[in-house]
Amino acid sequence: MADEAPTEDPAPDPDPADTTQPATEATDPEPTDHIAPAADPAADPSPTPTPTSTPTPEDTEDPAPSTDPTRNRARRIYVAPDPAGLPGASMSAPPADRPELRLDAFEAIADTAARHDVVLELVGGELGVRPAPDGDRGQILAWLQRACAQQRPDLWLFGRQGLRLVPSRQAGAAYPAGAARPDGTLAPAEYFAGQGEWADSRGVLLVAEITSFDRRADERHRVEKPRAYAESGIPLHLLVDRDNDTVTVHSEPVKGRYRVIRSYDYGERVELPLIGAVLDTEELKDYSR
Question: Which pTM value belongs to this model?
C-alpha cells in the first residue's frame, strides 16, 4: 500500500487572549508618526478651499502720507500733528495708578548710576538710559559747536548738560516734570555757572539731539523728547537723524508742542530761527552710514 503524503494541520485560530502570537500585516498597520494621511479627493466631496494671496504693495493704493515729521523733506513747513497720534506716544505717559518719580528722587538715582558710567534721563515719566556716544556723534557735535561759535560767539553749545524739564502752566502738559541730558544745549556763555549738575532749562535757547541707532533711545528722540522740550518752553529743538540722513528743526512751542517743523536733507543749508544762524550740513555726509 502506497504511503500517503502527510497532510499539514490547519493553522489554529489565533487566540485573542494570547499575546505571544505575532500580529499579521493585515491586522497591524504601520505607525504613522501622528501624521494624518492625505485626503482622497474622490472620497471627500467637499471642495478644497483656494488659498488667498497676500496683496502686494502694487495691488494696493498709495498709503497716506506719514505723520512722522522726520520723514518729510527739506523746505516743507507745516503744522505739527498732535504727538498723541504718533507711533510710540502712548508709551510715554505713565499709567494713572503708577506714582510719578519725583525729580529729587530721580537725581539721587541718576547720581548713583553715573558712578557706574550709566547716564539716566527721565522723559515722559519713564527712566531711560542714554547710549554711549560714538565717534561720528562726537564729530557731529563738534561741527555744530563750531558753526554756532562762529555765528553767535555770545552763545555756547554745551555737551550733555543736565536739564530739569518743568512743564510751563500754559503748555497743558501731558508729561510730568523730567530731566534730560541733550547732546547739545545752546545758551548764553555764562548761563550754567553755579547751577550744578541739573540746571534750569528756562534760559536755554536750543537743545540738539543726535540719534544713536538704538531703537528705544531713538523713539525718545523722535517722539517723547520733542514733546517734553516743547512743554518746557525751549524755543528750538534740533534733531540730527542718522537713520534718515536729515536735520529737523522744531520751533514755536505752543501748548506743549512745536507748531512748526522743518526737515532738511544732508547737504542743504539749515536755518535756525530766533538765533540768526545758518548751518551748512554738507560735512554731515562724511559721518553718514
Answer: 0.63
Instruction: Tell me the CATH number of domain 69-287, given options 3.90.1570.10, 3.40.1190.20, 3.20.20.70, 3.40.190.10.
Output: 3.90.1570.10
Q: CB neighbours (10 Å) of residue 213?
A: 13
Rounded to 5 degrees, φ, ψ at 231 are -65, -25
Q: Are strands 257-265 and 269-272 parallel, antiparallel or unpaired?
A: unpaired
End-to-end CA distance of the chain: 109
Q: Distance between CA 287 and CA 141 in Å, rounded?
A: 11
The per-residue pLDDT for 289 is 81
The three three-digit cell numbers of residue 151, written as one number: 555765528
Of 203, 198, 283, 208, give the one whose Cα is nearest residue 239. 208
d(CA 262, CA 77): 5
- The per-residue pLDDT for 226 is 92
Element spanning 151, H or E: helix 135-151
Neighbours of 108 (CB within 10 A): 11
Q: In this predicted structure, what is the pLDDT of residue 24?
A: 44
**Domains of the chain: which residue ranges?**
69-287
Instruction: Match 510710540 to its residue by C-alpha cell.
Output: 88
Q: Is 172 left (phi over 0), alpha (psi -120 to 50) or beta?
A: left
Which residue positions in the chain have pLDDT lower than 70?
1-100, 169-175
Strand-pair category, 162-165 with 198-200: parallel
C-alpha cell at 90: 502712548
Write down the pLDDT at residue 170: 60
What's the CA gap between 280 and 207, in Å, rounded?
Answer: 18
Candidates 117, 276, 267, 272; CA nearest to 208 is 272
Note the pLDDT tens digit of each residue in 83-114: 444 333 333 444 444 556 777 777 778 888 77
